[in-house]
User: What shape does this take?
Amino acid sequence: MSRGDGERARLLAGAARTIGAPDLVIALSHRGRRTYQLCGGMRPDEAPRYELGSASKPFTGLLLAALVAAGRLRYEDPAAELLAPGHPVHPSVRAITLRHLITHTSGLPALPADFYPQALPRWSTAPYSRYPADRVVRAFLRARPRHRPGTRWHYSNFAVSVLGHTLAAATGTPWESLLRTEVLDPLGLHDTRLRPSPLDGDAVGHRRDGRPLPALNTGGFDAAGAVRSTPPDLLTFLEAHLPATQAPTRPPAAAFSDVRHPLLRRGLGHAHTHTLTWFRHPSAHGPVCFHAGATLGQQLFLGFRPDTGTALAAMCTRRVHRTDPFIATVHELLTEKL
Assistant: This one.
């Protein structure tokens, strides 16, 4: 059923009431027409940049797909050989490819084993800040994967972070500059940043009791969670994934096709599929691709339906908790209601 702008605005307002967060923003694009539900009378161009957390991973995945489409890398390239040629590693590490890293099938744990002792004293404020890039790389080169690469799906911030460092090493370009050159600038995402800039429009996260939190420092895990962006930029990013949208020259159209294509099955009973970088669930309106993220004091959801030209970004600046309705509500909004 086709819905008008007024009906879509009503659905966004209903979702906002269900979530009940005073700082909530929901941004919708349907066949190029945008609708916003913003807190406090704020205009879309006044919205701050939000921490994406794990919703940064689709940016890293698109970067990989763009480099592959341009012929600069292959999905099956061994990561260790690109990252540290000739360095002695365990045979299972030698078998890990770029595809394994981005699809969470590398066999690596969620985080390195030695991450937790140093992070615990700063767990609620800056757990990643003292685990820099060189330590992430060293942890990878001495790793012992839990499973043979390519045999099991296990979500891993560690793996995607290693991918970022590998892409930088393989191209001779820092990850931040590479993402800017290959993805952000070509898509016109000029309000998207990879470092905190609180004096230049960054949203401030909050604990459940309302106390503000410092900006997230991702240490050596940038590729897994460092992106910060505004609602309009996030809609632009999502719209570029929709087949009906005229894709720019860069990233190549083949890159967007690659990140939409289902690759593997995962979840309870293997009921759901996963693309190169998105979770992919069925719906009555066709497949829904999405990714959520949560930092110490912010939450974010990105999703799109390729078959209907619909994209949704939602965000708020409060800490996630077990009974929080944010993710369930916006997922249902995109999957069943819009």
User: Anything to note?
Assistant: The mean pLDDT is 93. The chain has 13 helices and ten strands.
